[in-house]
C-alpha cells in the first residue's frame, strides 16, 4: 500500500469511526436539545476535536515514546464511557421531565435557554470516547508506516475524518428534527426523553459487555 493510500485510509477510517453506535448515541443525546443547525454542527465538531486530541496524544505517545498500554486499561476506559452515557442519558430524562412539568404551568413556547448554554461538554465527551478503544482503530495501520512523521500525519488525518464525520452526522440528525419541531412544539421534550432512555440503556449494555469481556 502506498503512503498516500495509507493516509487516505486514515481519513476514511475517521469518517467511518464517527458512525460507531456509542458515538451516535452520545452525540444524539447531547444534540437532542439543539435548535439550530449551527449549534448542532458545532457540537459534532467539538466532539470530534476532543476525540482527535486524545488520539493524537495516545497515538503520539505510542509512536514517539513506544508507550505500551497495560492490559485491563481498555476495560476500565470502556466502563468510563458506559458511565458517561448513563449520566448523559439521565440528565436528558431529568431535563425532559422538568420541561414537561413546567409546560403544565407555563406557555409551551419556553425560552431558548439551552442554546445559550452551549458549552465544552461535547469536547470532554469526545475526549473520553477517544480514550476508550478507538485508539486501536487509529493505530491499526501504524505498523505499516515506517516514519514517525508519517504515522503522526496518519493520526491527524484520522482525527480530521472523525471531526468531519461527526459534524455531518449531527447535521443529518438535526435537519429533520428542526423541521418537525416547527410543527410539533413538544417534540424537543419527547426527543430528549427518548435519547436519554436510549443512552442509559446503551450505557448499561456497554458496561455489562465490558465486565463480561465480550
Helix content: over 70%
Number of domains: 1
The main pleated sheet reads as: none
- Based on Cα principal axes, name the global outline: globular
Contiguous low-pLDDT stretches (5 residues minimum) are 108-116
Helix/strand order, N-terminal first = HHHHHHHHH
| N→C terminal distance | 32 Å
- Residue-averaged pLDDT: 77
Number of strands: 0
Strand-residue proportion: under 5%
Alpha carbon gyration radius: 19 Å
> If helices are DSSP runs of H or I spanning 4 or more residues, what is the number of helices?
9
The SS-based structural class is mainly alpha
Topology:
Blueprint: H1 3-17, H2 21-31, H3 37-65, H4 73-103, H5 113-116, H6 121-131, H7 134-138, H8 148-181, H9 187-212
In short:
By secondary structure, this protein is mainly alpha-helical. It has one domain.
Would you mind describing this structure in some detail?
It is a single chain. The chain has helices at residues 3-17, 21-31, 37-65, 73-103, 113-116, 121-131, 134-138, 148-181, 187-212. With 214 residues, the protein is mainly α. The protein has one domain (3-212). The two termini are 32 Å apart.
Tags for this model:
214 residues, mainly alpha, 78% helix, globular
Amino acid at each position: 500500500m502506498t503512503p498516500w493510500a495509507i493516509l487516505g485510509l486514515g481519513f476514511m477510517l475517521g469518517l467511518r469511526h464517527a458512525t460507531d453506535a456509542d458515538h451516535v448515541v452520545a452525540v444524539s443525546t447531547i444534540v437532542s436539545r439543539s435548535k439550530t443547525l449551527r449549534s448542532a454542527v458545532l457540537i459534532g465538531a467539538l466532539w470530534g476535536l476532543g476525540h482527535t486530541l486524545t488520539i493524537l496524544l495516545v497515538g503520539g505517545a505510542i509512536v514517539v515514546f513506544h508507550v505500551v498500554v497495560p492490559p485491563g486499561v481498555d476495560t476500565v476506559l470502556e466502563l468510563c464511557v458506559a458511565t458517561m452515557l448513563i449520566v448523559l442519558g439521565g440528565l436528558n430524562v431529568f431535563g425532559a421531565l422538568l420541561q414537561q412539568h413546567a409546560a403544565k404551568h407555563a406557555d409551551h413556547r419556553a425560552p431558548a435557554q439551552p442554546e445559550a448554554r452551549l458549552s465544552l461538554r461535547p469536547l470532554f465527551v469526545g475526549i473520553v470516547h477517544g480514550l476508550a478503544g478507538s485508539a486501536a482503530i487509529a493505530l491499526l495501520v501504524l505498523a505499516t508506516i515506517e516514519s514517525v512523521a508519517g504515522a503522526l500525519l496518519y493520526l491527524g488525518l484520522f482525527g480530521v475524518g472523525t471531526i468531519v464525520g461527526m459534524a455531518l452526522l449531527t447535521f443529518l440528525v438535526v435537519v429533520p428534527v428542526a423541521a418537525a419541531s416547527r410543527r410539533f412544539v413538544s417534540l424537543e421534550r419527547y426527543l430528549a426523553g427518548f435519547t436519554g432512555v436510549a443512552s442509559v440503556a446503551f450505557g448499561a449494555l456497554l458496561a455489562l459487555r465490558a465486565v463480561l469481556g465480550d
